[in-house]
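ok here's Catalase, seq below lol
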Amino acid sequence: MKKDNTKNSKTNPEKDAKSQDLERNREYSEGQFITTDQGVKINNDHNTVKAGERGPSLLEDFIMREKITHFDHERIPERIVHARGSGAHGYFEAYGNVSDYTKASFLNDTSVKTPVFVRFSTVAGFRGSTDLARDVRGFAIKFYTQEGNFDMVGNNMPVFFIQDAMKFPDLIHAVKPEPHNEIPQAQSAHDTFWDFISLMPESMHMIMWAMSDRAIPRSLRMMEGFGIHTFRFINKEGKSTFVKFHLKPKLGTHGVVWDEALKISGNDPDFHRRDLYENIEMGNFPEWEFGVQLVPEEDEHKFDFDLLDPTKIIPEEIVPVTPIGRMVLNRNPDNFFAETEQVAFHPGHVVPGIDFTNDPLLQGRLFSYTDTQLSRLGSPNFHEIPINRTIAPMHNNQRDGHMRQEINVGKTHYSPNSLNDNYPIQAKESEGGFVSYYERIEAHKVRERSESFSDHFSQAALFFNSQTSVEQNHIINALRFELSKVETVAIRERMLGLLSQVDKTLAKKVAEGLGLTVPGKPEKPMNKGIGADADQKKHEPKPLNKNYELSDALSMIKNPTVTNTIETRQVAFLCGEGVNEKSLTALKKALESKGASAKIVAPNAGNIKTDTGKEIKADFAFFSSSSVLFDAVYVPSSKNNTALTENNNIIEFINNAYRHCKVIGFDNDLENLIKKTSIGTKPNMKSNDIPGILINNNTSKQFTDEFTDLLGQHRVWEREALITE
Ligand code: HDD
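and the structure came out like this:
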């Protein structure tokens, strides 16, 4: 019998507390009879009961009715946003250095491994949409702590489009497919999105992030994560410290290029999901360092922006990120629906030691997340679904409702009660009871926005100016692409007006791509989100604040935490029949010794022979693979190099890798092949003068060293200047 290797025990030998908790719901069917939901063994699962072999089906066939009825109801509503997602289990370990700031025990106790479940997602697309959409990525973590569940429901970008939750339905309506024809899928490049954005100057900072390569990640394992809002840490003495949450990936933060993203979507729409799943299966457990920016309560007003404004970062150069733990993902879900689809996150799931601030976006979120689960999961009992269940003891007087699992024993379900000695009883703060932060508030009830939220351009400019010129070009090209899909010229012009307030050159270059000029005197940006009777002047966007120093942490290329590891990178080896075994093995070994892998791409999907007659297995065939699925390409010579030269799939493979600035290595007798590719057609340039094109002379160590070194730099960006679209 074929062994089913999707069983979860494979990657989780130790079974953490959450895994043990899930065990009571796992169902294993090996060696079992098929039965109805009522446990009756089924004798024939292939035919309905009929009046005669060729007669009509009988309504009494309870087995058929049960099976079809269940099938008819298999789908639940997809998430209104973040519908497309991928999840994994893992753990969090604290470094034990934050007790001065928070009493949350999972952040302090170094002896405990806290189980986590993480769900990554895109925002706009439907559940079956491509992973490589240009979009923000959700980064939601459920920490199953011993004091209850803590959810960090963040993104891979540290700011948001809007400042007040009241605008969330408008933002999402604008970005989702247009209502009359439900086009386009998983894309922001259309009129309604940019119409909204062009009228919302507060979105400009987030637009810079969303148009950067952060919106097209190389891997979910190579993204930063952010809690975005300012939260509070509360220590044992009840003292509050403002905190922002950060996750920094061990593998560095990397994106793909836009043309590549488009092609990946065709070649493998599940690219990110597959990459996460396969790497966990292979034991390449993705890891992040969990860090915090801490701001003492008394420093709240020391910044040029408001800490409660979710469209602002605290630059890491002003308040550094302190690492306080690490998170590792080491186990795939057993069942996508039961776990990844049914998991329900909520920014309001906090534990003692973590509390909210008055960020108006966060405050609105605190309402929305429970509410949405009621329609998505269908009942206030969604906390009983195994993936959502806390591992902490859970007792209260909440009762009944659809699909209730718990059987509450006894006749009291109210408090106070005398019939059950008033149990379950309240916990004092010293016993771990959650006490809201004792914040003093004295205010008028107003439907208003704070004037301190009105600087919409300074941090957008900070972000843009902190990028390398390569990254700036990618932002410009992204804006050109997006706005070129906008049909209404007035929207394009309004966007140029807004962009010119971030950076004049940025606006000019985007305008060139649209065949427009930047409006001379930018139209005063409308700030529609403020409230009809509000003093509009007070809320007019403020001019650029030049006080910001550039921040390397905002650039993926300059980011000081980026390491040049090649771990888990995949290199395509394009191998013909009779491939040079010595050459293949030398680079393969060099890559594998540093944690990368070589994938054999061959004329067919079976086996090929090396020049010594050894059979090797192909991982992919030329005709069903593409360089966009790999990080680099190597072409060893083979007995029949002409066959390689004449294969269009190979030429296209190399041309794409060239265009996407990937390192490409060739054995030195492949000049004829090179001549047929974009590399060979560069006038006045020898191929090995082109950045990132390496010619291997006699399998030298210099070649393997250079190859691995460039692979570790992710892309050879110097080449981009040579590439004309
Ligand atoms: Fe949200 C889902 C992140 C603002 C309302 N949100 C959702 C998910 C993530 C975020 C990662 C998917 C969770 C999962 O994987 O199941 N949302 C954010 C961030 C925001 C944000 C980082 C701003 C900083 N969201 C936001 C606002 C509202 C919502 C302002 C409503 C007022 N979000 C929802 C929701 C969702 C959701 C409708 C859909 C599915 C779900 O909650 O469970 O309630």
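fwiw The domain at 85-388 is CATH 2.40.180.10 (Catalase HpII,  Chain A, domain 1). kinda neat tbh
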